[in-house]
Write a structure and sequence with these properties.
The protein has ten helices and eight strands. It is about 45% helix and about 10% strand. An eight-stranded parallel sheet has the order 1-2-3-4-5-6-7-8. The chain is α/β, with parallel strands linked by helices.
Length: about 280
């Protein structure tokens, strides 16, 4: 049943491209064909589309060939098509040429899809303007469980839009905001949300743009750790942490209320020997 749906998706994609007056993207066509085969071989009902633009061992010839990457116009057509699919479970669009012009199509997919659980937008060119539209779609989405935005320069306001969405979204379990140029205000907002959000299990906040030396970000994260008892994984790589900041994190971890966190990444920070001894 799912294999038939995947094959029909490919056919509908060709028809939709023709209606829109664009050429079907060869890589999308190839992956839709491969998805149909995978479903048959693995006896799965889920349609998982890997359309990453950075190449893999299997598609190594695509590395560095930017003309083969997926652009806004391709995603607009693809999302229109996939929003009707009940088999789609995962969509990987990392390292393509997607900009804010893709945001409306991606938001429509999030609003309409009844099956999409994982969306990877890592390494694209979505900014504050685009993420505002995507974040608004998260307000009503009840299906998506994982969202990766790593490397999209959404900035401080973009981080605030995501934090607002997480106040009402109850489906997301994993969110990656690493290297998104978040500032202290959006880090504080995320920390505040995590004191009340009991659904998220993994959060990535690597490499924010912190200009203060007072380590407010660590104080707020530490306080969150004293309250949140559902988060299992937290990434704070290149988080401008020093001794004082790490001690605040340890205070949170040693609180009687925190018993859920199993993985804490604080690599590439400015630590001396003392906080390491404290953590032990």
């Amino acid at each position: 049943m799912a294999a038939k749906a995947a094959a029909e998706t490919k056919e509908r994609y060709e028809v939709l491209c023709k209606q829109n007056g664009i050429e079907p993207h060869s890589y999308i066509m190839k992956k839709l064909t491969a998805a149909s085969t995978d479903i048959l071989m693995n006896s799965t009902d889920a349609l998982s589309l890997d359309l990453s633009g950075n190449g893999t061992l299997e598609t190594a010839e695509r590395v560095g060939i930017t003309s083969h990457r997926i652009a806004d116009i391709d995603v607009e057509t693809l999302c229109t098509l996939l929003s009707r699919s009940t088999a789609l479970s995962s969509l990987d669009l990392r390292y393509n040429n997607l900009t804010d012009k893709s945001s409306n199509a991606l938001a429509k997919l999030l609003k309409d899809s009844q099956s999409l659980r994982e969306l990877n937008l890592m390494g694209n060119d979505i900014t504050e303007e685009g993420i505002k539209i995507i974040a608004k779609a998260l307000h009503t989405n009840k299906i998506l469980q994982s969202l990766r935005l790593t490397g999209n320069k959404i900035g401080n306001n973009g981080g605030m839009y995501i934090a607002q969405a997480l106040q009402v979204n109850h489906s997301l379990r994993h969110i990656d905001l690493g290297d998104c140029d978040l500032h202290i205000e959006s880090i504080v907002a995320m920390s505040t949300v995590l004191t009340k959000n009991s659904n998220l299990r993994a959060v990535v906040l690597n490499r924010p743009m912190i200009f203060s030396h007072q380590e407010e970000q660590a104080v707020h994260i530490g306080h969150m750790l004293t309250v949140n008892n559902t988060l299992t994984e937290l990434h704070l790589e290149k988080f401008s942490l020093r001794d004082f900041g790490v001690e605040r994190l340890v205070d949170g971890l040693l609180s009687s209320y925190n018993y859920s966190l199993k993985y804490l990444n604080i690599s590439s920070n400015r630590l001396s020997r003392h906080p390491g001894q404290t953590a032990q």
